[in-house]
Specification:
- The protein has about 300 residues and is an alpha+beta fold.
- About 25% of the residues lie in helices and about 30% in strands.
- It folds into two domains: about 5-125, D-amino Acid Aminotransferase, Chain A, domain 1, CATH 3.30.470; about 135-285, D-amino Acid Aminotransferase, subunit A, domain 2 (D-amino Acid Aminotransferase, Chain A, domain 2), CATH 3.20.10.
- It has helices spanning about 25-30, 55-70, 75-90, 160-175, 215-230, 240-245, 275-285, and strands at about 5-10, 15, 35, 40-45, 50-55, 95-105, 120-125, 135-140, 180, 190, 195-200, 205, 235, 250-255, 255-265, 265-270, 300.
- The strands form two sheets. Strands 8, 9, 10, 11, 12, 13, 14, 15 and 16 form a nine-stranded mixed sheet that branches. Strands 1, 2, 3, 4, 5, 6, 7 and 17 form an eight-stranded antiparallel sheet that branches.
- β8, α4 (about 160-175) and β9 form a beta-alpha-beta unit.
- The mean pLDDT is about 95.
- Bound molecules: pyridoxal-5'-phosphate.
- Pyridoxal-5'-phosphate binds near residues 38 and 219.
Length: about 300
Protein backbone atom coordinates (compact mmCIF):
# COMPACT_ATOMS: atom_id res chain seq x y z
CA UNK A 1 0.00 0.00 0.00
CA UNK A 2 1.27 3.47 -0.79
CA UNK A 3 2.04 6.07 1.82
CA UNK A 4 -0.25 8.90 0.76
CA UNK A 5 0.28 12.52 1.75
CA UNK A 6 -2.17 13.47 4.52
CA UNK A 7 -3.91 16.22 2.52
CA UNK A 8 -5.36 16.19 -0.98
CA UNK A 9 -6.56 19.10 -3.08
CA UNK A 10 -10.23 18.32 -3.67
CA UNK A 11 -13.12 20.49 -4.85
CA UNK A 12 -11.10 23.65 -4.40
CA UNK A 13 -9.74 22.99 -0.90
CA UNK A 14 -7.11 20.98 0.98
CA UNK A 15 -8.91 18.16 2.75
CA UNK A 16 -7.70 15.02 4.58
CA UNK A 17 -6.85 12.39 1.96
CA UNK A 18 -9.45 9.95 3.36
CA UNK A 19 -12.21 12.54 2.90
CA UNK A 20 -11.49 13.14 -0.79
CA UNK A 21 -14.13 10.74 -2.16
CA UNK A 22 -16.15 10.56 -5.38
CA UNK A 23 -19.44 8.84 -6.23
CA UNK A 24 -19.54 5.39 -7.86
CA UNK A 25 -21.58 7.06 -10.62
CA UNK A 26 -18.73 9.39 -11.54
CA UNK A 27 -18.66 9.63 -15.33
CA UNK A 28 -14.85 9.41 -15.66
CA UNK A 29 -14.74 6.18 -13.65
CA UNK A 30 -16.85 4.50 -16.34
CA UNK A 31 -15.49 6.06 -19.50
CA UNK A 32 -11.85 6.91 -18.74
CA UNK A 33 -12.63 10.55 -19.48
CA UNK A 34 -9.97 12.02 -17.24
CA UNK A 35 -6.42 13.17 -17.72
CA UNK A 36 -3.66 13.08 -15.20
CA UNK A 37 -0.24 14.43 -14.53
CA UNK A 38 2.62 12.89 -12.64
CA UNK A 39 5.44 14.90 -11.21
CA UNK A 40 8.16 14.41 -8.66
CA UNK A 41 9.01 16.74 -5.82
CA UNK A 42 11.84 16.45 -3.31
CA UNK A 43 12.81 18.30 -0.15
CA UNK A 44 15.72 20.60 -1.08
CA UNK A 45 18.90 18.75 0.05
CA UNK A 46 20.53 22.18 0.58
CA UNK A 47 17.79 24.07 2.41
CA UNK A 48 15.15 23.25 4.99
CA UNK A 49 11.49 24.07 4.41
CA UNK A 50 11.85 24.14 0.63
CA UNK A 51 10.42 21.68 -1.86
CA UNK A 52 11.88 21.36 -5.33
CA UNK A 53 9.56 20.61 -8.23
CA UNK A 54 11.05 19.46 -11.54
CA UNK A 55 9.68 21.31 -14.57
CA UNK A 56 6.41 22.21 -12.85
CA UNK A 57 5.56 24.67 -15.63
CA UNK A 58 5.84 21.98 -18.31
CA UNK A 59 3.76 19.55 -16.26
CA UNK A 60 1.09 22.19 -15.69
CA UNK A 61 1.09 23.04 -19.39
CA UNK A 62 0.67 19.41 -20.44
CA UNK A 63 -2.18 18.89 -17.99
CA UNK A 64 -3.87 22.07 -19.13
CA UNK A 65 -3.54 20.86 -22.73
CA UNK A 66 -4.87 17.44 -21.73
CA UNK A 67 -7.90 19.18 -20.22
CA UNK A 68 -8.42 21.03 -23.49
CA UNK A 69 -8.29 17.73 -25.35
CA UNK A 70 -11.15 16.61 -23.11
CA UNK A 71 -12.99 19.83 -24.02
CA UNK A 72 -12.69 21.36 -20.58
CA UNK A 73 -10.63 24.25 -19.25
CA UNK A 74 -8.02 24.09 -16.53
CA UNK A 75 -5.43 26.84 -16.48
CA UNK A 76 -1.76 26.31 -15.77
CA UNK A 77 -1.97 29.02 -13.09
CA UNK A 78 -4.76 27.14 -11.30
CA UNK A 79 -2.79 23.89 -11.36
CA UNK A 80 0.39 25.52 -10.04
CA UNK A 81 -1.44 27.42 -7.31
CA UNK A 82 -3.20 24.25 -6.12
CA UNK A 83 0.09 22.32 -6.14
CA UNK A 84 1.79 24.94 -3.99
CA UNK A 85 -1.10 25.15 -1.52
CA UNK A 86 -1.17 21.40 -1.24
CA UNK A 87 2.60 21.16 -0.68
CA UNK A 88 2.38 23.76 2.10
CA UNK A 89 -0.41 21.79 3.78
CA UNK A 90 1.55 18.53 3.63
CA UNK A 91 5.13 19.72 4.31
CA UNK A 92 6.65 16.50 2.85
CA UNK A 93 9.99 15.32 4.22
CA UNK A 94 10.70 12.57 1.67
CA UNK A 95 10.67 12.41 -2.16
CA UNK A 96 7.10 12.39 -3.38
CA UNK A 97 5.07 11.90 -6.53
CA UNK A 98 2.18 14.28 -7.18
CA UNK A 99 -0.82 13.15 -9.15
CA UNK A 100 -3.10 15.95 -10.43
CA UNK A 101 -6.24 14.71 -12.19
CA UNK A 102 -8.87 16.51 -14.26
CA UNK A 103 -11.98 14.48 -14.99
CA UNK A 104 -15.66 14.41 -15.81
CA UNK A 105 -17.14 14.49 -12.32
CA UNK A 106 -20.73 14.45 -13.62
CA UNK A 107 -23.03 11.61 -12.57
CA UNK A 108 -24.78 11.45 -15.96
CA UNK A 109 -24.64 8.20 -17.88
CA UNK A 110 -24.09 9.18 -21.56
CA UNK A 111 -20.51 8.95 -22.84
CA UNK A 112 -19.84 12.51 -23.96
CA UNK A 113 -17.69 15.54 -23.30
CA UNK A 114 -20.22 18.34 -23.89
CA UNK A 115 -22.61 19.72 -21.29
CA UNK A 116 -20.80 17.94 -18.54
CA UNK A 117 -19.46 18.86 -15.12
CA UNK A 118 -15.70 18.49 -14.64
CA UNK A 119 -13.45 18.78 -11.61
CA UNK A 120 -9.80 18.67 -10.63
CA UNK A 121 -7.96 17.10 -7.71
CA UNK A 122 -4.40 16.41 -6.62
CA UNK A 123 -3.03 13.85 -4.24
CA UNK A 124 0.49 12.77 -3.46
CA UNK A 125 2.39 9.74 -2.29
CA UNK A 126 5.88 8.80 -1.27
CA UNK A 127 7.74 7.29 -4.21
CA UNK A 128 11.22 5.87 -4.43
CA UNK A 129 12.47 3.98 -7.48
CA UNK A 130 9.63 2.88 -9.76
CA UNK A 131 11.93 0.61 -11.79
CA UNK A 132 15.29 -0.81 -10.74
CA UNK A 133 18.01 1.77 -11.49
CA UNK A 134 20.27 -1.21 -12.30
CA UNK A 135 18.20 -2.00 -15.35
CA UNK A 136 15.09 -3.82 -16.50
CA UNK A 137 14.17 -6.67 -18.78
CA UNK A 138 11.60 -5.90 -21.47
CA UNK A 139 9.44 -7.78 -23.89
CA UNK A 140 7.69 -6.55 -26.99
CA UNK A 141 4.04 -6.30 -26.11
CA UNK A 142 1.39 -8.13 -28.07
CA UNK A 143 -0.70 -4.97 -27.54
CA UNK A 144 -0.20 -2.11 -30.00
CA UNK A 145 0.10 1.51 -28.88
CA UNK A 146 -3.07 3.40 -29.83
CA UNK A 147 -3.10 5.87 -32.70
CA UNK A 148 -3.89 9.55 -32.49
CA UNK A 149 -6.87 9.01 -34.78
CA UNK A 150 -8.41 6.92 -31.98
CA UNK A 151 -7.66 9.21 -29.06
CA UNK A 152 -5.45 12.20 -28.29
CA UNK A 153 -2.06 10.73 -27.44
CA UNK A 154 -0.47 14.04 -26.48
CA UNK A 155 -2.52 14.14 -23.30
CA UNK A 156 -2.24 11.69 -20.44
CA UNK A 157 -5.81 10.54 -20.98
CA UNK A 158 -6.73 8.06 -18.28
CA UNK A 159 -8.73 5.74 -20.54
CA UNK A 160 -5.67 5.24 -22.74
CA UNK A 161 -3.92 3.50 -19.87
CA UNK A 162 -5.87 0.29 -20.39
CA UNK A 163 -3.29 -0.51 -23.09
CA UNK A 164 -0.39 0.33 -20.76
CA UNK A 165 -1.97 -1.83 -18.05
CA UNK A 166 -2.51 -4.80 -20.36
CA UNK A 167 1.03 -4.51 -21.71
CA UNK A 168 2.66 -4.16 -18.29
CA UNK A 169 0.79 -7.12 -16.83
CA UNK A 170 1.48 -9.27 -19.87
CA UNK A 171 5.18 -8.44 -19.47
CA UNK A 172 5.32 -9.13 -15.74
CA UNK A 173 3.27 -12.35 -15.95
CA UNK A 174 5.59 -13.64 -18.65
CA UNK A 175 8.68 -12.96 -16.54
CA UNK A 176 9.78 -9.48 -17.66
CA UNK A 177 9.85 -6.13 -15.88
CA UNK A 178 8.47 -3.85 -18.58
CA UNK A 179 6.77 -3.82 -21.97
CA UNK A 180 7.79 -2.06 -25.16
CA UNK A 181 4.87 -1.24 -27.41
CA UNK A 182 5.06 -1.05 -31.17
CA UNK A 183 2.84 1.42 -32.96
CA UNK A 184 0.41 0.44 -35.71
CA UNK A 185 3.23 0.87 -38.26
CA UNK A 186 5.37 -1.70 -36.43
CA UNK A 187 7.91 0.80 -35.11
CA UNK A 188 8.94 1.13 -31.47
CA UNK A 189 6.70 3.65 -29.75
CA UNK A 190 7.39 3.60 -26.00
CA UNK A 191 7.10 1.52 -22.82
CA UNK A 192 4.01 1.31 -20.59
CA UNK A 193 4.81 4.67 -18.99
CA UNK A 194 8.23 5.70 -20.32
CA UNK A 195 9.83 6.93 -23.51
CA UNK A 196 12.70 5.06 -25.14
CA UNK A 197 16.20 6.13 -26.20
CA UNK A 198 19.07 4.27 -27.81
CA UNK A 199 22.65 5.21 -28.57
CA UNK A 200 24.36 4.19 -31.81
CA UNK A 201 27.83 5.40 -32.76
CA UNK A 202 27.64 8.32 -30.36
CA UNK A 203 24.22 9.49 -31.57
CA UNK A 204 21.26 9.62 -29.21
CA UNK A 205 18.19 8.31 -31.04
CA UNK A 206 14.55 8.37 -29.96
CA UNK A 207 11.20 7.82 -31.72
CA UNK A 208 9.84 11.19 -32.86
CA UNK A 209 6.61 12.81 -31.77
CA UNK A 210 4.96 11.32 -34.86
CA UNK A 211 5.47 7.77 -33.52
CA UNK A 212 2.38 7.75 -31.25
CA UNK A 213 4.40 8.48 -28.14
CA UNK A 214 3.40 10.51 -25.14
CA UNK A 215 5.46 13.69 -25.40
CA UNK A 216 7.38 13.00 -22.22
CA UNK A 217 8.81 15.85 -20.19
CA UNK A 218 11.82 13.75 -19.18
CA UNK A 219 12.29 12.92 -22.86
CA UNK A 220 12.25 16.59 -23.82
CA UNK A 221 14.68 17.35 -20.98
CA UNK A 222 17.07 14.58 -22.03
CA UNK A 223 16.99 15.80 -25.65
CA UNK A 224 17.76 19.37 -24.56
CA UNK A 225 20.49 18.28 -22.14
CA UNK A 226 22.14 16.03 -24.72
CA UNK A 227 22.21 18.93 -27.17
CA UNK A 228 23.87 21.15 -24.56
CA UNK A 229 26.37 18.38 -23.76
CA UNK A 230 27.38 18.06 -27.42
CA UNK A 231 25.66 14.71 -28.02
CA UNK A 232 23.94 14.60 -31.44
CA UNK A 233 20.23 13.79 -31.10
CA UNK A 234 18.18 12.15 -33.86
CA UNK A 235 14.39 11.80 -33.64
CA UNK A 236 13.31 9.10 -36.08
CA UNK A 237 11.40 5.81 -36.34
CA UNK A 238 13.14 2.97 -34.46
CA UNK A 239 12.98 -0.71 -35.41
CA UNK A 240 12.83 -3.49 -32.84
CA UNK A 241 15.98 -5.26 -33.99
CA UNK A 242 18.01 -2.05 -33.79
CA UNK A 243 17.75 -2.37 -30.03
CA UNK A 244 19.68 -5.66 -30.12
CA UNK A 245 22.69 -4.00 -31.74
CA UNK A 246 22.47 -0.58 -30.06
CA UNK A 247 25.36 0.57 -27.86
CA UNK A 248 22.93 1.64 -25.13
CA UNK A 249 19.17 1.42 -24.63
CA UNK A 250 17.28 3.20 -21.86
CA UNK A 251 13.89 4.46 -20.76
CA UNK A 252 12.92 7.90 -19.46
CA UNK A 253 9.95 9.05 -17.43
CA UNK A 254 8.98 10.92 -14.31
CA UNK A 255 8.44 7.70 -12.37
CA UNK A 256 11.26 5.71 -14.01
CA UNK A 257 13.72 8.64 -14.22
CA UNK A 258 16.47 7.20 -16.48
CA UNK A 259 16.42 3.39 -16.40
CA UNK A 260 18.60 1.16 -18.60
CA UNK A 261 17.15 -1.80 -20.46
CA UNK A 262 19.45 -4.73 -19.76
CA UNK A 263 17.58 -7.42 -21.65
CA UNK A 264 15.09 -7.48 -24.52
CA UNK A 265 13.14 -10.71 -24.93
CA UNK A 266 15.84 -13.40 -24.52
CA UNK A 267 18.77 -11.20 -25.59
CA UNK A 268 21.02 -9.38 -23.10
CA UNK A 269 21.74 -5.80 -24.25
CA UNK A 270 24.96 -3.78 -23.98
CA UNK A 271 25.98 -2.97 -20.41
CA UNK A 272 28.51 -0.18 -20.90
CA UNK A 273 26.46 3.02 -20.94
CA UNK A 274 28.64 6.15 -20.93
CA UNK A 275 26.07 8.40 -22.63
CA UNK A 276 23.20 7.32 -20.40
CA UNK A 277 25.37 7.64 -17.29
CA UNK A 278 26.44 11.18 -18.19
CA UNK A 279 22.82 12.21 -18.83
CA UNK A 280 21.58 10.54 -15.67
CA UNK A 281 24.24 12.15 -13.49
CA UNK A 282 23.40 15.58 -14.89
CA UNK A 283 19.67 15.08 -14.47
CA UNK A 284 20.09 14.06 -10.82
CA UNK A 285 22.18 17.18 -10.20
CA UNK A 286 19.51 19.33 -11.84
CA UNK A 287 16.58 17.78 -9.96
CA UNK A 288 18.44 18.30 -6.67
CA UNK A 289 18.78 22.00 -7.50
CA UNK A 290 22.58 21.79 -7.75
CA UNK A 291 23.02 22.87 -11.38
CA UNK A 292 23.11 26.63 -11.89
CA UNK A 293 22.60 26.28 -15.67
CA UNK A 294 19.24 24.58 -15.17
CA UNK A 295 17.79 26.55 -12.25
CA UNK A 296 14.94 27.50 -14.58
CA UNK A 297 13.80 23.85 -14.63
CA UNK A 298 13.24 23.92 -10.87
CA UNK A 299 10.39 25.52 -8.93
CA UNK A 300 11.22 26.16 -5.29
CA UNK A 301 8.21 26.09 -2.98
CA UNK A 302 8.74 27.50 0.53
CA UNK A 303 6.75 25.41 3.00
CA UNK A 304 7.61 27.22 6.26
CA UNK A 305 4.63 28.52 8.22
C1 LIG B 1 2.62 6.46 -21.65
C2 LIG B 1 3.73 7.30 -21.11
N1 LIG B 1 4.82 7.54 -21.87
C3 LIG B 1 5.84 8.28 -21.42
C4 LIG B 1 5.85 8.83 -20.16
C5 LIG B 1 6.99 9.68 -19.71
O1 LIG B 1 6.60 11.03 -19.60
P1 LIG B 1 7.23 12.02 -18.54
O2 LIG B 1 8.69 12.04 -18.79
O3 LIG B 1 6.58 13.32 -18.84
O4 LIG B 1 6.90 11.50 -17.19
C6 LIG B 1 4.76 8.59 -19.32
C7 LIG B 1 4.72 9.12 -17.96
O5 LIG B 1 4.20 10.17 -17.70
C8 LIG B 1 3.66 7.84 -19.82
O6 LIG B 1 2.59 7.61 -19.04
Amino acid sequence: MHQFLPYAWFQGNCVPFEEAKVSIATHALHYGTGAFGGMRAIPDPQATDTILLFRADRHAKRLSQSARLLLTELSEAKILAALETMLRANRPTTPIYLRPFVYTSDLGIAPRLHNIETDFFIYGLELGDYLSPEGVSCRISSFTRQEDRSLPLRGKISGAYITSSLAKTEAVLSGFDEALLLNSRGKISEASGMNLFLVRDGNLITPGVDQDILEGITRASVIELAGAMGIPVIERPVDKTELFIADEVFLTGTAAKITPIRQLESTPLATDRPVMNALRERLVKITEGRDKDYEHWITRVAISN
